[in-house]
Design brief:
2 domains; 155 residues
Length: 155
């Protein structure tokens, strides 16, 4: 993933695509920042981790997309369609690095399958099921929607 990002930065520089270049640089800066924080834990002890795994990067990209979607709503309410459009363009760039997203039917099947596999009975098991979903489907599932589906399934 890192190699692809660096190659795409070079291509964006050559083509003069400023929006894409800025977004790719933001992604790499965020990854580097998280790489540095992966070296130590909350207590300042060495973790032995050199850098983020690809699964962690996928989760980071999903978080970046979620932040931009929230910003789009705020900008539209404030009448700043120009800024909302900029955020939408950044989302398009970031989404290119995520695997194919699951549709609603696939998400429902995955949620139902894990509920059955983990023998989840009620809302008290929600955390355990969500952790398993994130472990198995990071980068391919919208966990906000999955959470709502899981609540529905556990009622």
């Amino acid at each position: 993933m890192r190699t692809r990002l660096n190659d795409d930065i070079k291509a964006a520089m050559k083509s003069g695509d400023k929006r894409r270049l800025a977004t790719l640089r933001l992604i790499t800066a965020t990854i580097k920042d998280r790489d540095l924080s992966a070296h130590v834990d909350e207590q300042g002890q060495a973790t032995g981790r050199d850098k983020l795994a690809d699964q962690d990067i996928l989760a980071l990209l999903q978080k970046m997309i979620k932040q931009r979607r929230e910003s789009i709503e705020i900008y539209r309410k404030a009448g700043r369609d120009d800024l909302a459009e900029q955020e939408a363009e950044e989302i398009a760039v970031i989404e290119a690095y995520l695997p194919q997203q699951m549709n609603e039917d696939e998400m429902r099947a995955a949620v139902a399958g894990l509920v059955a596999d983990l023998n989840a009975k009620g809302l008290k098991d929600m955390g355990r099921v969500m952790a398993a979903l994130k472990e198995r489907y990071t980068g391919t599932m919208d966990f906000g929607k999955a959470s709502a589906m899981l609540k529905e399934a556990l009622k």
